[in-house]
TrEMBL record:
Alphabetical UniProt keywords: Coiled coil
Descriptive protein name: Uncharacterized protein
Recorded coiled-coil stretches: 120-223
Superkingdom, taxonomy of origin: Eukaryota
Residue span of region Disordered: 228-251, 317-337
Amino acid sequence: MREAAAAQAVALQDAKMEALVLSKKLRRLEAGGSHASLFEVYEEELAASQAEAARQRVVVGELESAVRDLRLEIETLRAVAAEAGDPALRVAGSEGLASGAVDVLAEGRAAKVRSWKRALAIADKERAVLRAELAGLQKRIRHADFHRRAAEDSSRKLLKASREAERLTAELRDARLAQSQAQAALLPAEREREVLRDTCRQLEEQLQLAQAAKRELQFERRRDELRLRHPRLSEASRSSPRGRGGGGAAARRGSTCELLRLLEAELGTTGVRVLPRVHVLLQRAQREAGAEEEARREAMAREEELMQILVDEQLTRGGGGAGAAPAAPAARPSIKA
């Protein structure tokens, strides 16, 4: 009996220590996780197991006290039988009492042992279930912690990226505002620059025209001086084909070309279809008039070149004189250029 009671006490102590260890682990997990409701359920189950263990300890204590009382009664009966002096009665009484007490004690002990075994088996099963649930919960908590840390890192990165995007957006908005202000400030300057550019272009054109007119006047003055000094040059210029023909011939040629163009315009596509021969003759007349005009222009150009050569030679010969006119340009300038 003492050995069984001691074994039960040791088993209960082990169960108590294991329950304490599990409760500590659960408290640590509860402090580090977010599954408070599950931990509360496990703590309630552990508290119920501890209460059942305490009740079993009370039952064991009652059984031990009953065993002690029974032993005291057996010893008392043995003492009474010894005082009576009847060995047979003493032996029979002691044997009967001992056998009855032993049977009662054996049955009670067997029942208690069976109940304890059942309770211990149930406690072991519950403990195994709790351990399995605890292991699964720890695994889930580890995975949840990993995902929670990843989510926190992602949230921090997203917040940082959003702040950076807001900062860049503000900088871009400020830069665009500054650009628009600079463009608005440069717009009057651009307009003024365009006005000044147009003015400069007009002044340059006027300057070029003035320079061309100046060169033309210088050329005319030198030519007049040369004609005054050499009357033969003026007679030769008057006796040239252009002089003989006069301005009337040039005007007639110009009017002829103009009339041909007007006639072609009047005929149009209808004249081409109806009078193709007239159209061919008209084109031939236009070509001949164009060739005549080109020859006239070439003759005028050669005449001007010859006049320029004569002017240059005269200036070169008279260049040694005092206060001679300035040297003429290499070619006659044209104000139309």
